[in-house]
Amino acid sequence: MLDIKLIRENPDFVREGLTRKNEPDRVSEILELDVQKRKIQTESDTLKAKKNKVSDEIPLLKKQGKDVAHVLEEMKALGEQIKVYDAELKEIELKLDEIVERIPNLPHTSVPTGKSAEDNVEVRRWLPDGTTLESEKKYLDHLELGKKHGILDFERGTKITGSGFPLYRGKGATLERALISFMLDYHINNHGYQEVMTPFIVNRDSMFGTGQLPKMADDMYLAERDGLYLIPTAEVPITNIYRGETIDERELPIKMVGYSPCFRREAGSYGRDSKGFLRVHQFNKVEMVKLVKPETSYDELEALVGNAEAILKALKVPYRVLLLCSGDLSFSAAKCYDIETWSPAENKWLEASSCSNFDNFQARRAKIKYKSADGKKSDFVHTLNGSGLATSRLMVSLLENNQTEDGRIRVPEVLIKYTGFDII
């Protein structure tokens, strides 16, 4: 959430950021409500101070034998006026909060200006030795490979739940589990993350804290009877571990990693490519989350991207890194890199990871602060998260890039100790 002080003192800066993010400009509306709020607050506080002062004087006046009836009438009138002010103040605060809660984070100055994904900038790409993206080789796609070897069963997944809910079988299920275990172990042992295992269902405050609510409510699965949400990503519960807390700066950076299934309705995505793993409503993901001091957060973002890249290099999966333009950033992100893996059968790049710096935007919503070692300074942390990685589209690239001439699938060397087999 943006600091109202920032909007008040730098309205043109905020307007520019909203324009870069293709968002409507509601700054004037916010400023008008803010002026009204502060004016009424001042008037209310003045009356309350007067009421308190006179109330303290009444016992003395009574003791002196003076008639206080007119004073009591005046205090009654003041009390009624204070109630009016407080009601007006509450109404304005609700309107102001409703608007500010829907204002997205502003793009960082290093983010290129653009309208859509077409304006994203490729930063780098990595191909294993001997790999080329131009090939006349005929590749089976992941659906064909899944059927051929009995490792993926989307038809029965649809029968069980509905479209977009995959079913893994046999060595496919083992490979998925191996991939998750490998990624967790790699981040813990090589990158210094602490593993966490969180609930997969969260309350509204948690969804609000990371910015999913209220704007993206239609994309979430809600258990209405309980008012609980199936998580769209482990970013939500992991970040909210520290919601409402003040952390000693000596504990920073805090680096956490966790596995979770992810649930997304994908509202508004109908008609887009939905074959197999290309668009699903449930998928598995290993998520990295960092809580850091503001002055280090953008260096921490680069390191986060490198952590995700290290997984793909170990798996020997071709990938590229994109710097997202302002118009393609998520609601909460100030800067984001996408990592896409290569699908030879689809002949295109597939998003497998997003690594974002949210600046203090989420921390303000979730009220996560840190205090200096001497206890004299308190400020909001910066939060970051990155997929390390999502398995669904990564599985597409993993299966397709490792198929042999006779249609079998080689298991990446780093996964063999987890699977117990080297070929499917």
Keywords:
single chain; alpha+beta; BirA Bifunctional Protein, domain 2; elongated
Strand content: 15-25%
Number of strands: 14
User: What fold name stands as the CATH topology of the largest domain?
Assistant: BirA Bifunctional Protein, domain 2
Number of domains: 2
Largest sheet: 8 strands, mixed
CATH architecture verdict of the largest domain: 2-Layer Sandwich
What's the level 1 CATH class of the largest domain? Alpha Beta
Give the CA-based shape: elongated
Which class do the helix and strand fractions yield?
alpha+beta
End-to-end distance: 48 Å
Along the chain, the helix and strand elements come as HHHHEHHHEEHEEHEEEHEEEHEEEHH
Mean pLDDT: 94
State Rg: 27 Å
Which strand order spans the largest sheet, edge to edge or round the barrel? 1-9-10-11-14-8-7-2
Q: How helical, in percent, are the residues?
A: 40-55%
How many helices? The count is 13
Q: How would you name the oligomeric state of the polypeptide chains in this document?
A: single chain
Q: pLDDT below 50 for ≥5 consecutive residues: which ranges?
A: none
- The CATH H-level homologous superfamily of the largest domain: Bira Bifunctional Protein, Domain 2
